[in-house]
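--- STAGE predict ---
source: upstream dedup step, 1 unique chain passed
mode: sequence only
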Amino acid sequence: MARRRNQAQGHGADEISTSEERDYTVRAVERVCSILNLLQESIDGVSLIEVGQATELPKSSAFRYLWTLEVHRYVERDEQTGLYRLGLGFVGMQSRHLEVLRERARPWLEELRDDFEETTNLGILDGDHVIYVDIVESRHKVRLAASRGDRDPLHSTALGKAIASQLPDSRVRDLLDRTGMERQSDNTITSIDAYMDEIAKVRRLGYAVDNGENAADGRCIAAPLLGTHLPAALSISAPAARFTLKDVEKAARKLLDVAEQITTNPATSTETDGEA
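--- STAGE serialize ---
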């Protein structure tokens, strides 16, 4: 009898749940989602005040939400501007792959910097932009260098092109359509079809060039890192006046060799090469 009564009560609950709309949302979770959506839609980052307005939270409460997300690496704060943006926590289950890749690439970035005396970078695709996960800066007083954690467009950077060359065309088009192709300089490619032609060239050559497309006075060359479980690439960047197109051709050979070393010989480092 008890079993029948429980079944009847359960059946009644089912009828109630199907006949009435119930709101199971949690306000705190909704606010977190609002914060993350706001950050995702921003390219340059958002202020604490903007987060408070979007979530209808007082400044102190908004700060606690952001601080907690920052602790877990889902949010990053730019120390110079004070703006917040999405963090590397969204690499998700691949975060360990990223740390391993960064450790593996670091000595090679340093060797490339020393060989060419220019800034070297490791970048990955994070959402619809390229994020710089490691940088070894040139020792020149005048240099072209981003900061670790900076985000750049996919369409105007050598890193972006190198990464895009490893993605399906349909995904590249979707990313470009979503972000738009804002003109960064007179040389920026702003047509999806023209960009896809450029990607076809990158696939043939194996490397990508930003010829004053992201910054009018800059030049950059990048090679994709294949087989790393991450959409990643290495690059060398410098002022265009010092890093000529002839230099790019020479750097390309070394960059492709380094990219292959990183992905095919994970235990190899510049130090072990020297000992051999």
